[in-house]
Amino acid sequence: MSTQQSVTPQSHSLQGEAAKHQLVVNPPPGEKPPAKQQSGQFGVKKLDLPTIFKTQTSPTGELDLSNKNLGDMHAGDITKCLKYSMIRVLSLAKNRLTDEGVGQIVRAICDTSVEHLDLQGNKITEKSVDSIVGCLKTNKSLKVLDLSNNGIGSRLMKNKLKNALPHIEVLL
Prior knowledge:
The protein is α/β, with parallel strands linked by helices. It is built from six helices and seven strands, in the order αββαβαβαβαβαβ. The protein has helices at 9-13, 49-56, 72-83, 99-109, 129-136, 155-164; strands at residues 22-24, 44-46, 62-64, 89-91, 116-118, 144-146, 169-171.
């Protein structure tokens, strides 16, 4: 199986567009990346996040960007797209977002109508707890924040999140 075949149908249909944003796509386990792809780089697929935000957001305002191998380098593009979208439910689960990228996204969420943010299974640590709490303390729209399966393990940090954000259901 080639790397192109392992890409989801939605992202595969966008590959021909002139995109500024890139998504690194790893080949299936045990397979080597092709020698060269259209972009001229190893294992790189172009991903046009603005187009995905426009075309894949459901009529009810849900957008699933889980398992897209998104990292901190995509956080800035995600935040820009959030400003101009009417997303209510955003899943960024099982990507490669760390404290830095999540900090950018959480700050952007404060100025949106997002009600449910799924960040489970990323690379978020306890270092980001203070910035998450600081940004979301005054947020009026967010109702659910899923931070499960990340690096937030101490009871102190879990309690800090839940106690400082009583208006948000925080899943840890």
